[in-house]
Amino acid sequence: MQFARVGDFLAASQITGPRHNLLQLRLGSQPQGVPVCECLPPVGKCQHEPLDKSELIANVLQGVSEANSRHGARHSVLHIRYVENDTKPESVYAFLALKLVEHLEVGGEFTEANNE
User: Fold this and answer.
1) Do 4 and 100 touch, CB atoms closer than 8 A?
2) CA-CA distance, 91 to 98, in Å (whole number)?
């Protein structure tokens, strides 16, 4: 798993064999509302069954909530970005969100990345 900063976003990516997923989150500290969810353009030419946006959002919120509980934190999700041709299942986004917030909470390093 790789962690990066992309402008105001924190990103976690994972590639395992034919599966690939990127999650970018802009976090806040206010009570959780409905986050903006943005689908980024496809990367490469692979095509997969489309991700269900509402399931993806629910899984991201679940992962951040779990990380908050584990670390006594109060992060809220303001904005979610994912890649159009990333792979299912949507539950992987709960794992990515959990690991991203955990990485932040333990002082892990985030590489600087550009917006491309």
Assistant:
1) no
2) 11
- The per-residue pLDDT string of the chain (116 residues; one tens digit each, 9 = 90 and over) reads 999 999 999 999 998 777 889 999 999 999 999 999 999 998 877 787 889 999 999 999 999 999 999 999 999 999 999 999 999 999 999 999 999 999 999 999 999 987 65
- Whether residue 23 contacts residue 100, with contact meaning beta carbons closer than 8 Å, is answered with yes
| DSSP-assigned letter for residue 48 | -
Q: What is the side-by-side order of every strand in the sheet holding 2-6?
A: 36-40, 76-83, 19-28, 9-16, 2-6, 111-113
Residues 4/111, Cβ–Cβ less than 8 Å: yes
With contact defined as beta carbons under 8 Å apart, do 94 and 63 qualify?
A: yes
